[in-house]
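Most newcomers find our protein records easier to grasp once they have seen one. There is nothing in a record beyond a sequence line and a structure line. Getting from the letters to the tokens is the skill we practise here. An example says more than a description, so a record of this kind follows:
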Amino acid sequence: MMTDTHLPVSDIAASVKAARQTKALTQRELGRRVGLPQSHISKIESGGVDLQLSSLIQIARALDLEIRLIPRKALPAVEGVLRSQEAGDGKAADQHPAYRLEENEE
């Protein structure tokens, strides 16, 4: 059974680019960190190269990211957590408890 891999590759490429920009790194700086030329980083970000898994892992680590395989059934929950973290910018001050204990007045 053949599947279309174009969409996931373009999603990964866009994620690499966004993470690099968030870290305020140039393509050249990222390439230097992972031992790849700037031109190859550019091709990766544009989806113009078939990225090797070892290179993806190196790039992810250089961007302070981790690669994990997530069961499809769990994907909505993981995406929800990521959206929540992005909306709160990951700051503890933006997080609110789900409940509050109240003291009994006797």
Remarks:
- The chain is about 55% helix and 0% strand.
